[in-house]
Amino acid sequence: MGIPSGTNFVDYIKSKIQNPELVILMLSPNYFDSMFCQCELGAAWALSNAIVPVLIPPADYSDLKAVLTGIQVRKINSDTDLAEMRDELVKRLGLDSSVARWDAKRKQFLAKCPHLLEQQTAPTRVTFAKYSEMQKKYDDGVKELEGAFAQIDSQQRQIEELKKCKDAHQVAEITAAHSTDWELFETLCEEAKNRLGKLPRIVQVVLYHVLGNHEYVPPAAGSWKDQDTWDEIRAASQDDYLEVDSDDNVGLNQQDPTVHAALRALQKVEAFLEGGVDGHKVGNEFKSEYVEKYNHRLSFSSRKFWNTNLNL
């Protein structure tokens, strides 16, 4: 703009950048893409010119590198930044200006700014950093799709095999065969929790002792827990969940359907921990992964295991 006719463009720009009063850098994506603009920026830096950098979205602070690192930069679409830039220009250039007129023009510009920013032409080149970022996203997306397709194929095979099944045991075996260790473990624990949740708390406690090889000993007569606990035991006995003999020994009534279902579900969890269930063999790494995740040993007889996985 304003270059005299017949004057070499490059020579004229070089002469004017030797001693300007101020250099305003309009840092748009196209600015960073322009070799000429980069040369002007380098010259302004080398000659220690006074500069006012203005960031034009979608360029962002992350795009500021090299000589612009650590320099105060203002955004073109920020009301506050524009006000600060005006004050700086007035001070540096010794201008007289009308604040009222400036405010009106600034508001008018900010209203138009979103539309103006949308009209920018995107650069035709991308930086290597941007390319690397997009390549990584693409590679991650491909891996995710490959995993999804593999899962779909596995599920499709599982569906086809399930269609040929004749009983629940076959269904369980096929489901286990197509599950990871963690998927099967979580499925078995969820089933056991649901079965346990249908039983009174005292029956759950007795189940834990029976299956964990801990002898269940009810509170001794006269202890402070005696009355409440025995009330629960008697209620569970009346509902056929527990059996109490003449010596006050407490055991499970395994003939009760609800107790029997809970026992079977818990025994599957135990079988899984011992190495496998329904034809599924548990990998060696599962135990170490479990300990790392929950910070306690993987043992069916452990109270921590029951608390963590079975809501005891």
Report on the structure:
The structure is a single chain. By secondary structure, the protein is mainly alpha-helical. Helices cover 58% and strands 7% of the residues. It has 13 helices and seven strands. Strands 1-2-3 form a three-stranded parallel beta sheet, with helices on both faces. A two-stranded antiparallel ribbon has the order 4-5. Strands 6-7 form a two-stranded antiparallel sheet. The chain is elongated, with a radius of gyration of 38 Å. The termini are far apart. The mean pLDDT is 83.
Shape: elongated
Estimate the helix proportion, in percent: 55-70%
How do the helices and strands follow one another from N- to C-terminus?
HEHHEEHHHHHHHEEHEEHH
Poorly predicted segments = none
Q: Strand portion, in percent?
A: 5-15%
The spatial strand order of the largest sheet comes to 1-2-3
Could you tell me how far the N terminus lies from the C terminus, measured between alpha carbons in angstroms? 80 Å
Please work out how many helical segments DSSP would assign: 13
Q: Which whole number gives the mean pLDDT?
A: 83
Largest sheet: 3 strands, parallel
Radius of gyration: 38 Å
List keywords for this structure.
mainly alpha; 58% helix; 312 residues; 7% strand; two-stranded antiparallel ribbon; elongated; three-stranded parallel beta sheet
